[in-house]
Design brief:
The complex is a heterodimer of chains A (about 110) and B (about 120). Chain A contains no helices and 11 strands. Chain A has about 110 residues and is mostly beta strands. In chain A, strands 2, 4, 5, 9, 10 and 11 form a 6-stranded mixed β-sheet that branches. A 5-stranded antiparallel β-sheet of chain A has the order 1-3-8-7-6, with no helix packed on it. In chain A, a hairpin with a 5-residue loop joins β9 and β10. Classes of the chains: A mainly beta (about 110), B mainly beta (about 120).
Chain lengths: ~110, ~120
């Protein structure tokens, strides 16, 4: 069974701080996606990483895919209250399903 | 429509009742997925359709759960004889094609089911 483990599960920081969220697996994934979900809404895709070692930037968010395509990280620089939400990583499994990690709840206090 | 639409947004059912949850995907999207999400957790896969064909239903937790997409557009997730453990948010997502990384998933806002 392919599993994705995210850490930390919960993060509460002050505005302006930096943070990193990790997504790890013992399995290889053909691609990994990161989503952000706000209360009462569905997840919204932030980025897809496909190539081992790939780094993608989205404003203050930096996403990295591990060389072995088993792990990924999301780094946020100078977090803002608007970054608050549930961050989910998801991997395309070898059976075609999209498997989600358990999520990281981020709270950024003003 | 502009996005994936799910109805109802909230559903309260008494234990033992049957419920039907509706999903209207983005027009023209081939693939449709149902996920179940507990509070503060990641979504868990239930079932997948490509057009009207249900290609994967391995995530359905029991035979009380049934999904259909008869004309390859609107889908309905039906839960018979609801139990308290069925309480969750049920998310529907659609994508233009069947590939994950070249065709992103677009999620609806979900139906929150509470079984009392």
């Amino acid at each position: 069974t392919q599993l994705l483990e995210q850490s930390p599960q919960f993060l509460s920081i002050q505005e302006g701080e930096n943070l990193t969220v990790y997504c790890n697996s013992s399995s290889v994934f053909s691609s990994l996606q990161w989503y952000r979900q706000e209360p009462g809404e569905g997840p919204v895709l932030l980025v897809t990483v496909v190539t081992g070692g790939e780094v993608k930037k989205l404003k203050r968010l930096t996403f990295q895919f591990g060389d072995a395509r088993k792990d990924s990280s999301l780094h946020i620089t100078a977090a803002q209250p608007g970054d608050t939400g549930l961050y989910l990583c998801a991997g395309a499994s070898n059976t075609g399903k999209l498997i989600f990690g358990q999520g990281t709840t981020l709270q950024v206090k003003p | 429509g502009a996005g994936v639409s799910q109805s109802p947004r909230y559903k309260v059912a008494k234990r033992g009742q049957d419920v039907a949850l509706r999903c209207d995907p983005i027009s023209g999207h081939v693939s449709l997925f149902w996920y179940q999400q507990a509070l503060g957790q990641g979504p868990e896969f239930l079932t997948y359709f490509q057009n009207e064909a249900q290609l994967d239903k391995s995530g359905l937790p029991s035979d009380r759960f049934f999904a259909e997409r008869p004309e390859g557009s609107v889908s309905t997730l039906k839960i018979q004889r609801t139990q308290q453990e069925d309480s969750a948010v049920y998310l529907c997502a659609s994508s233009l094609s069947g590939g994950y990384y070249n065709s992103p998933l677009h999620f609806g806002n979900g139906t929150r089911l509470t079984v009392t």
